[in-house]
């Protein structure tokens, strides 16, 4: 990465962090470009060099958060592919903890699903986690996309309700709920 690209990414990161800080204080729809620029310490023209709209900034910020989440999972030891499960506390705990830590941003993502498609996060894990797990549980290739959609949409719905309640319920309760009410394919058989 050259110096210009690094500076561009640094400035984009400042604006993403500014948006996250503002989301802690107010609703997304009430945040202005001017406020983001003031919080980030950049000019309005700099904002428009990076983004066409606040939605573009939010989308990039979501990608930044997802990248951080993937990094946080790197400390979780990989499962033996023959023992992969979809509903493992090992994966759910850091996922739900991360969502709770970034609740305001995730509330916006959930509320504006038509812009940000929550399914995108799960699809990024499809090849490495979900597809091998579905194979392990005997799901044929032709049915995988349907089983995957059923599992992820149910999980997204549970998490959406949890976010609607400001993540007040204990993470252990949400983990238990997801693990008890997901597909038999994904249940840990131990």
Q: Which runs of at least 5 residues are low in confidence (pLDDT < 50)? A: none
**Structural class of the secondary structure composition?**
mainly alpha
The helix tally amounts to 10
Major beta sheet summary: none
What proportion of the residues form beta strands (DSSP E)?
under 5%
Shape: globular
Number of structurally distinct domains: 2
Order of helices and strands: HHHHHHHHHH
The helix fraction, in percent, is: over 70%
Number of strands: 0
Distance between the first and last residues' Cα? 46 Å
Mean pLDDT: 81
Radius of gyration, rounded? 18 Å
Secondary-structure blueprint:
Elements: H1 3-25, H2 33-40, H3 44-50, H4 54-73, H5 89-101, H6 103-111, H7 113-116, H8 119-136, H9 141-164, H10 171-181
Helix pairs in contact: 1-2, 1-4, 5-10, 8-9
Give a short overview:
This protein is mostly helical and 190 residues long. The chain has ten helices and no strands.
């Amino acid at each position: 990465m050259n110096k210009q690209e690094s500076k561009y990414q640094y400035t984009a990161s400042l604006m993403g962090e500014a948006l996250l800080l503002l989301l802690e204080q107010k609703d997304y729809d009430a945040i202005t470009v001017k406020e983001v620029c003031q919080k980030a310490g950049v000019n309005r023209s700099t904002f428009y060099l990076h983004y066409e709209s606040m939605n573009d900034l939010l989308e990039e910020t979501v990608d930044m958060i997802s990248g951080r989440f993937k990094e946080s999972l790197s400390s979780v030891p990989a499962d033996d592919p023959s023992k992969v499960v979809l509903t493992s506390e090992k994966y759910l705990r850091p996922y739900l903890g991360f969502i709770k830590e970034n609740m305001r941003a995730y509330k916006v993502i959930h509320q504006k699903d038509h812009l940000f498609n929550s399914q995108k996060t799960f699809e990024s894990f499809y090849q490495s986690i979900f597809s091998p797990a579905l194979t392990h549980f005997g799901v044929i290739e032709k049915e995988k996309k349907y089983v995957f959609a059923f599992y992820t949409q149910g999980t997204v719905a549970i998490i959406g309700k949890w976010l609607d309640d400001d993540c007040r319920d204990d993470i252990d309760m949400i983990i238990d709920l997801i693990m008890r009410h997901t597909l038999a394919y994904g249940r840990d058989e131990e």
